[in-house]
């Protein structure tokens, strides 16, 4: 709107706004015009949630992949160990820990192997009792020490050692003593007896079995309850200086 002054010049009339009304940008004088304030656009909550779910899914996949990797590594380590020899649960656990595997991976692998029968302390104890006695000629005490060294539970040891027949142990002791005595002929009888006694005790035989087997092997008095030739019926005795 324009008005004419007394001098004939035209001027813009001052624009007045009703209370509460906003002036459009560029309308009216700078001193009286209010500027519009733009409101921020609302955040898209759906996009944010989708992004969070995506991150969680990625982390879950990474965690699962790491767990599978540890599982495969534990399986490879245990398989390599069991291929070399039979192992007790304690021995295999020690091997797995030496490879810096975490507790969960170790426990899961040990439980898996026990579940499929690849580690069985009771079966291992029975095998060791038989092989240590028959092949190595060890007595009861040495066999028990070997089972304890491999950290097999005492209850399992007690059951396994009962399978060792006392007569079989005695007969095996006589065989071992005779064989060893044949290597002591260069000594006098007392020295040979002392050496043979120490040898038999180290192999884990009881003092009673050691005494009888040594006497038989060196041609001394025959043990009570046996024939003059010993349990096998063969004559014992070695010539000494």
TrEMBL record:
Gene3D superfamilies: Winged helix-like DNA-binding domain superfamily/Winged helix DNA-binding domain. Its main location: cytoplasm. The keyword Metal-binding does not apply. Residues 120-160 form the RecX second three-helical domain. InterPro entries: RecX_HTH_2nd (IPR053924), RecX_HTH_3rd (IPR053925), Regulatory_RecX (IPR003783), WH-like_DNA-bd_sf (IPR036388). Residues 227-241 have a biased composition (Gly residues). One of its GO terms (cellular component) is cytoplasm. Residues 168-212 form the RecX third three-helical domain. It comes from the Bacteria. Signal peptide: none annotated. Residues 29-42 have a biased composition (Polar residues). Residues 43-57 have a biased composition (Low complexity). GO terms for biological process: regulation of DNA repair. Keywords: Cytoplasm. It is found in: Cytoplasm. Residues 21-80, 214-241 are annotated as: Disordered. Belongs to the RecX family. Modulates RecA activity. This is Regulatory protein RecX. It comes from Homoserinimonas hongtaonis. The lineage of its organism: Bacteria, Bacillati, Actinomycetota, Actinomycetes, Micrococcales.
């Amino acid at each position: 709107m324009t008005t004419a002054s007394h001098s004939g010049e035209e001027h813009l009339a001052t624009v007045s706004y009703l209370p509460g009304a906003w002036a459009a940008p560029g309308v009216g004088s700078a001193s009286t015009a209010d500027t519009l304030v733009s409101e921020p656009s609302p955040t898209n909550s759906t996009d944010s949630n989708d992004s969070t779910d995506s991150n969680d899914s990625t982390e879950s996949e990474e965690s699962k992949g790491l767990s599978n990797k540890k599982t495969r590594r534990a399986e490879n380590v245990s398989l390599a160990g069991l291929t070399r020899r039979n192992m007790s649960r304690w021995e295999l656990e020690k091997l797995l820990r030496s490879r810096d595997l975490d507790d969960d991976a170790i426990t899961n692998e040990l439980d898996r192997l026990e579940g499929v029968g690849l580690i069985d302390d009771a079966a291992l104890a029975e095998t060791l009792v038989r092989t240590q006695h028959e092949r190595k000629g060890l007595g009861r005490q040495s066999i028990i020490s070997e089972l304890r060294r491999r950290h097999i539970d005492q209850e399992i040891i007690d059951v396994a050692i009962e399978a060792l027949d006392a007569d079989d142990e005695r007969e095996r002791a006589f065989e071992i003593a005779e064989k060893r005595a044949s290597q002591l002929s260069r000594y006098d009888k007392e020295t040979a007896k002392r050496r043979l006694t120490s040898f038999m005790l180290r192999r884990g035989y009881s003092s009673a079995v050691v005494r009888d087997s040594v006497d038989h092997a060196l041609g001394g008095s025959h043990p009570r309850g046996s024939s003059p030739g010993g349990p096998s019926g063969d004559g014992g005795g070695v010539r000494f200086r």
